[in-house]
Amino acid sequence: MLLKSTLLALAFCAFASTAQADSIHTITGDTTGAAIFNRPLEDLSGLSGIGTDVSFNQFRFTVSAPGAYSFLTTAAFDSMVFLYSPSFDPGAALTNALIGNDDLLGTTTSGFVANLDAGTSYVLVITGYEGFEYGRHSTTIGGPGAVSVVAVPEPETYALLAFGLGVVGLASRRAKALKIA
User: Fold this and answer.
1) Nearest-angstrom CA–CA distance, 73 and 159
2) Neighbours of 132 (CB within 10 A)
3) What gap in Å lies between CA 78 and CA 59, rounded to an integer?
């Protein structure tokens, strides 16, 4: 395990040097039980016929300086990674897609180098190759500026919010009815 981690770290250093990494940021997550979508093909030429129901995580971020940024994802499954700007819609997985990758250093790693603009909104999507490919993952981003990640709520969070607002509305309506009576 230590040898594998060391080799991956060395590979990332070589990979990141192409982006002249001045700062490094790591994002972790787990796609187990996450929302699903029909992922794009690696070259973004269409939607996958195999990855029609793959779990995904999405991370919205900006960078503080323009330049080349390297992305390296390691996962406990056969992973793929995609970059979108300015937004990501799982129902229209090709819209706003900039770049994708599968199997950079092997089946459990993926990544790329992309030129990013400061202050522009980007979304990084980590997913599996097929529907049974999911689990924990970690993505390291290196580049000339700081990476600021903004949390993207899961669909369950929106459902809970809607339920809560409904309860508050019902309680308010009931309180008004009791005042009138």
Assistant:
1) 30
2) 11
3) 19
The pLDDT of residue 4: 45
- Compute the CA torsion angle 46, 50, 56, 58 (nearest 10 deg): -10
Q: Are 80 and 110 in contact (CB under 8 A)?
A: yes
Residues whose CB is less than 8 angstroms from the CB of residue 172 and which lie 6 or more positions away in sequence, other chains included: none
Among 147, 131, 170, 111, CA closest to 51: 131
Range of the domain at 91: 2-150
CA distance 12 to 140: 9
Within this chain, do residues 26 and 81 fall inside the same structural domain, yes or no?
yes
Reported pTM: 0.76
Same domain, 146 and 62: yes
Q: What is the pLDDT of residues 26-69, one digit of tens each?
A: 999 999 999 999 999 999 999 999 999 999 999 999 999 999 99
C-alpha to C-alpha distance for 18 and 16, rounded to whole angstroms: 5
Strand partners, 26: 140
**pLDDT tens-digit map of 121-165:** 999 999 999 999 999 999 999 999 999 998 655 555 555 566 666
